[in-house]
Amino acid sequence: MIDCGFRQPRTSVPVSEFLIVGGGVIGMMTALQLADAGRRVTLLERGECGREASWAGGGIVSPLYPWRYSAPISTLSRYSEGAYPELSLRLLEETGIDPEYRQRGLLYLRVDDEERALDWARQEGKPLQRVGPETIYAKEPNAAPGVESALWMPTLGSIRNPRLCRALRARLQAMPNVALREHVDVEELVASAGRIQGVRTSAGHETAECVVVCGGAWASQLLASVDVALPVRPVRGQMILFKAPPGLVERVVLKDGRYVIPRGDGRVVAGSTLEEVGFDKRTTEAAKGSLYDSALSIVPGLADCPVEHHWAGLRPGSPDGVPRIGAVPGVEGLWVNAGHYRNGLVLAPASTRLLADQLLQRTPVVDPAPYRLDT
């Protein structure tokens, strides 16, 4: 196993090899991959696992406009898209909780850079095509009338992220080599002589051979406690949920950066806002009205459906949207996986696999260089 720099006295009670800080989808998938490899893992979460940004998002298993992203994000996205069908089936079999992975495709309405998108699709080998009204309304009969042209990607999938988080949590709770501890607030990292020693929490001191920070929007605060700068900030996103009948919306539809996502029971998620307001998670009536109007401009029939829920989450924003994955320079035994911005769920299988590969000294699934903290 990789030398993470921490050595416990021989007389002490054995501790976990890996201590993961943060129980979102990144932290839980990291724990799952390490536990699958037979390692002892402790996961600490200040609230309940999967109830922050991982719960708050929409669940589209792709960047919204993938051709507008840099190569490092595309690389992780490509791997993750292929991993979700198998992961979803695995979790259903192991936990009885269906993450509701649906591969029904996506309609892009009113895209300004169509040629760029089609060029990207040709280079990536993606089935993206320009379609007219006949195809648009065959795929989505209740879409707003009068749309003459759209882009259609038939392979795009979505997952019901709250159920994915519930399934991951249930699986980890059932694994004997995982200690999942919720409602434990990690107050600071503890390091000495250039090595991580553990963490100080609201419940006392925790030690491990390696500490992995998967704290989402809060990751930079944790790393600051050992004088490490991480360019991650909170970016609020608000969403609404319509209680719609099954069949009103059949697949993901995207227009002007806003989207509607159908769930298996007919409900429709509409999102989302991008707001630089620090750690403020309050919802606003202005955002609710804007999301409502955007949703109706995509599917007018949603006007007949009540808004059942309105919420906000904090994305871990980073300057370029590229997550930082790997060892933290200057602090032996400290690792990070954070800064996924709008694509935490999208990139989670790949980014957690990449980190696990490095921790376990396996050949990395992708080149780790673009994601290093010092890049």
From TrEMBL:
SUPFAM superfamilies in the cross-refs: FAD-linked reductases, C-terminal domain, FAD/NAD(P)-binding domain
Designated name of the protein: Glycine oxidase ThiO
Domain of life according to the entry: Bacteria
Pathway per the UniProt entry: Cofactor biosynthesis; thiamine diphosphate biosynthesis
Domain FAD dependent oxidoreductase: 18-357
Keywords (A to Z) from UniProt: Oxidoreductase, Thiamine biosynthesis
BP GO terms, sorted: thiamine biosynthetic process; thiamine diphosphate biosynthetic process
GO MF annotation, one: flavin adenine dinucleotide binding
Species the sequence originates in: Chromohalobacter israelensis (strain ATCC BAA-138 / DSM 3043 / CIP 106854 / NCIMB 13768 / 1H11) (Chromohalobacter salexigens)
Presence of the UniProt keyword Amino-acid biosynthesis in the record: no
InterPro entries tied to this protein: FAD-dep_OxRdtase, FAD/NAD-bd_sf, Gly_oxidase_ThiO
GO annotation, cellular component aspect: cytoplasm
Keyword field contains Transport: no
Upper classification of the organism: Bacteria, Pseudomonadati, Pseudomonadota, Gammaproteobacteria, Oceanospirillales
